[in-house]
Design goal:
The protein has helices at residues 7-25, 29-44, 55-72, and strands at residues 49-50, 53-54. The protein is mostly helical and 97 residues long. The chain has one domain (7-82). A two-stranded antiparallel ribbon has the order 1-2. Helix 1 (7-25) packs antiparallel against helix 2 (29-44) and helix 2 (29-44) packs antiparallel against helix 3 (55-72). It is globular, with a radius of gyration of 14 Å. The chain starts with 6 loop residues before the first helix and ends in a 25-residue tail after the last helix.
């Protein structure tokens, strides 16, 4: 919240995706799908890479999970394979801040 630069939206997108998966683990389909959708949209501005983070991969994997959740629907949310939850990966390049 204190970050004045646009990079705050990168942080926000990563947090939204993470909290979306937290909701998924708790069986909250609506919270999961809403936050995954919003987080992916927020992150797209920073594709393909930002601050050494492979943003494109995170967006792609999050959107794949979102599609699977939407196909399962609210009643079958607990059938989602939690091992498919993506992790933030680094490109090996460090950007100067």
């Amino acid at each position: 919240m204190q970050e004045p630069r646009r990079v705050r939206f990168l942080y926000q997108g990563i947090l939204q995706v993470g909290v979306g998966f937290y909701h998924l683990k708790n069986g909250n389909w609506r919270g999961a799908t809403g936050l995954l959708r919003n987080g992916a949209v927020r992150l797209k501005e920073f594709e393909p890479e930002s601050l050494g983070i492979d943003v494109a991969r995170l967006v792609r994997e999050s959107e794949t999970c979102l599609g699977e959740l939407e196909a399962l629907g609210r009643e079958r949310v607990r059938e989602f394979d939690l091992s498919r939850i993506p992790k933030v990966t680094f490109t090996g390049q460090q950007a100067s801040s």
